[in-house]
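Catalogue entry: protein

Sequence with per-residue tokens
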Amino acid sequence: MHPCCVYCIWLVKFNQLLSLWGVTMSNVLLVDDEKLLVKGLKRSLEQEGYNVYVAYNGQQCMDVLEREQVDLILLDLMLPGIDGLELCRLIRKSSEIPIIMLTAKGEDVDKIVGLELGADDYVTKPFNTRELIARIKAVLRRFSSTPEDKHAKVISAGNLYIDGLRRKVQRGEQKVELTAREFDLLYLLATSPGRVYTRENLLESVWGSPYYADLRTVDVHIRRLREKLEDDPKQPQFVLTKWGVGYFFQEDI
């Protein structure tokens, strides 16, 4: 029997066992037009227990999202037709599915733009598969953990209200629309006003990956939070900077 057939049979049986044990597999959507990379990465992810959908362009990606339940997207920036940045923007219009971008070296501007559009992390090609899998696990772990009833609370700071249980933010009479990651970042800071968090602290607590993610990821999300919360983002009232150290939520507002 061909080795590929043996592998497929093993994978099917493994998935059946997981179902019998009540284990739910996470569904990963891999969007990349490099077919050799897709083939190898798909197999590696399946060996880790993930169910993998594949799309080679933006339209195929949107088609998969319409018909399947996807838990995380691996999104290449350089796609034919709709590029990864535009695709990220389109996805964020209607979904908070975590997105990890796959970028090439030298695309620093695109990385920052991608984070500003709502991507949760990025990995630079060529990447170590074990590192990518570690990031996937960290992102999924963070998104699967929501505040428990006994811990979640409503925080009031001036005219800003943060509902930890319902994951809603309101300023005065106006609802503030935040991404899941933006909310987690704000909620962490607001539950300990005055406490200064380094960017490494925030990466570990909010992203779950202090050793892999870029520190600029935190800066981009802080900037987006200020743009949504503050009257003047350059003179923030809520999320402040401790120069040379990190960020903190203002006390006694």
